[in-house]
Input
Amino acid sequence: MVTVTTCSGLIEAQKMQMLLRCDGIDAFIPDEGSASWTPHYFFASGVRVQVPEEQVRRAKKIIEHEKHADQQDSTHEDVSDGDSLE
Output
């Protein structure tokens, strides 16, 4: 297994795992048990999401697409909060 991303917390890692699994990638969170019991320990180091070596390239493309979509959504939210742009 190869780490394709490190998330800031367990919920974010589970979201990535779900996203990858929905696309047929066998994603795994090796730290899931520990992160649920001791989240403070993983605050600094992050929670890893891993995939089989043969699925790394596709997984990284999906993750990059998701991160880009999240950035666009947050930019849209900043502008659309009801304030005028003038």
